[in-house]
Amino acid sequence: MKNTKNILGVLAILLMLNTACDDLFEPAIQNIRDLESSYNEPRFAQGLIINGYARIPRNGWSFNDMATDDAVSNNENNAYFNVASGQWAADNDPLNQWTNSKAAIQYLNIMIETADSVSFTVDNDLVDRMFADRIKGEAYGLRALFMFHLLQSHGGLADGELLGVQILDEPLDLKSEFNRPRNTFEECMQQLYLDVENALELLPLDYENIPSEDMMPDRYKAMGASRNDYNRVFGEDARQLLSGRIAMAIRAQAALLAASPAFSQGTSTSYEDVANFAGELLEKNGGVSGLAPTGLTWYTNVSEINNLGGGVNTAEILWRNSLGGPSTNLEESHFPPTQFGNGLLNPTQNLVDAFPSINGFPIGHPSSDYDPTNPYANRDPRLHHFIVYNGSTAGPNSQVINTAADGGTNDGINRVEVSTRTGYYMRKLLRQDVNLNPVSMNGQLHVHPRIRYTEIYLIYAEAANEAWGPSGTGSFGFSAYDVIRAIRQRAGIGLDNGDAYLESIKGDQDAMRQLIRNERRLELCFEGFRFWDLRRWDEDLTETARGMRIENGSFEHINVQNRVFGSHMKYGPVPLSELLKYNALRQNTGW
To answer: Where is the signal peptide (predicted)?
Structure first.
């Protein structure tokens, strides 16, 4: 086994990978220890894997929706405002994952290499073996996750070839060759799949205590492990660490990217593969019947959130961040001004128009009963759940929000710097029982999912429709149609007419494709998906963001912000700083 000989060497490599990272420490003389000294210090060794968790991109909301047709920012200094207005560049990329993810992978590679040598316990070699297996499994799963984010942010066509990033599957040291070319996208995907398989071999599906030795994996039975030994390592105390179930979800996410139009050139991943990956996971969740009844409002289900503890999840959430304490940060950024917020993210009219009528028909359909003089009546209930429009209520006192230009409050369109630019404010993700009034301020608990089950159901629906058509089930007994019907029923759509629109297109793959994409747009809005979805679908990136100006009781659609994206921007750039250092790297075409 090749070992990195000195912790200073490790730090030097990490600094090369991430020169802007502010969490790498400056070692004092007494901290200069060779890596082998960590073998008897499990906390020091585990710090490597902890660093991997700390770097997960979805540890915080990005709100890159503000660079799409779904939302705009009311702050002209916002990074996504600038991205959408033509300032996205290889040396100005707020979506950069190159430095963060590669530094994380270096830490994970060291953990994989050294885990077998670490003493995690005192004089219990069997438990040490199980701890090493678990931590290596976590590291493989996390490495797959970071590869997914690297491919999403930096994969692309270069001179006609679809490239990914450099595959780093062992620790770099000071003698390593850094000036190496990017691997193909396909090679990167195969490495990701291998990492997931390694994770699945080492990890339990979930971290739960087992009541008897009979439920223990055979390899640990053969070693003579007890139930207590197993529960000590793989039991409920490890909840929210990367599990086998989470690794399966990461595989489905990455496979969907690889099968999509913009990334399918020269790749072997098919939509049938994606459907099988997602379907296998959904079977373990009870199939379509496992769709959480309360999953639509997961962010504001007060009793569910307040009862979370011990690492448990709600039925909607597969993986989440730690809860933390009560906070007001999201609401301070996004509440309307009269609720003492800064109204940062403004949903667009484009997105509002994507919500169908309550009978399920798109608002442009003759059967929709849409009334342009009363545009928010009889609409998809998700419109009210996710967006504050004129006449909605918001805040702890359910105050009516008037977004009209002549409404007389700072909630009105373009009234002050923190007012909406589109006539709408974001409601989704926010706890309306947060009070920002300075004389009576109070925060609330917020749950932040890394992966929701609804996303996996939508991955299955999209892939199954492409692979087998709207009603095809593969080997799973449920179809794209079944999933979309369940999601729309949960939302309260078409309950009085049997969802006549869905029934009318159930035999039309193209129409179902558009409906599935629209359902994904609605269900996952403001969670950081739309920016990447438009790109992997190879859709138009330049649709003008529109709003609604209300004055004297009349409704006028207005243009708010042009989207300035070149056709090459369906792929992100390789950072300019890396190209200047390493001439073996090729930039994606157009950057």
So the answer is: 1-22
CA quadruple 421, 423, 429, 432: dihedral positive or negative?
positive
Question: 3-state class of 535 per DSSP?
Answer: helix
Percent of the chain with pLDDT over 90: 89
CA atoms of 316 and 295, how far apart (whole Å): 5
Sign for the pseudo-dihedral over CA of 422, 424, 430, 433: positive
Contact between residue 174 and residue 198 where contact means Cβ atoms under 8 Å apart: no
Q: How many residues does the chain have?
A: 591
What average pLDDT does this structure show over 220-229? 95
Q: E strand or H helix at 48, and its extent?
A: helix 42-54
154-163 tens-digit pLDDT: 999 999 999 9
Return d(Cα 221, Cα 212) in angstroms, integer.
11
The alpha-helical segments, DSSP class H, found in 215-325 are 218-223, 227-234, 244-259, 271-283, 302-306
Query: 530 near 354, Cβ under 8 Å?
Result: no
Structural tokens at position 88: 């996205």
Neighbours of 209 (CB within 10 A): 14
What letter does residue 561 receive in the DSSP assignment?
E
What is the band of 36 on the pLDDT scale with cuts at 50, 70, 90? low
Asked if pLDDT for residue 269 goes beyond 60, the answer is yes
Q: Is the pLDDT of residue 443 over 90?
A: yes
Q: Which two tokens stand for residue 344?
A: 């940062």
**Residue pair 405/414 in contact by the 8 Å Cβ criterion:** yes
Show Cβ contacts of residue 465 under 8 Å, excluding neighbours closer than 6 positions. Answer: 480, 509, 512, 513, 516
Asked whether the whole model's pTM tops 0.90, one would answer: yes
Determine the 3-state secondary structure of 424 from DSSP. coil
Contact 362, 335 (CB under 8 A): no
559 or 1: which leads in pLDDT: 559
Per DSSP bridges, beta strands 161-163 and 156-158 are: antiparallel
Picking from 348, 329, 181, 192, the residue whose alpha carbon sits closest to that of residue 256 is 192
Token pair listed for 324:
């933390």
Rounded (to 5) percent helix, strand, coil in the chain: 45, 10, 45
* Beta strands at 399-400 and 393-394: parallel, antiparallel or unpaired: antiparallel
For the stretch 326-357, pLDDT in tens is 999 999 999 999 999 999 999 999 999 999 99
Q: What is the pLDDT confidence band of residue 449, given thresholds at 50, 70 and 90?
A: very high
**Contact residues for 524 (Cβ-Cβ < 8 A; gap 6+):** 454, 455, 458, 530
Cβ–Cβ under 8 Å, residues 536 and 60: no
The answer on pLDDT for 390 being more than 80 is: yes
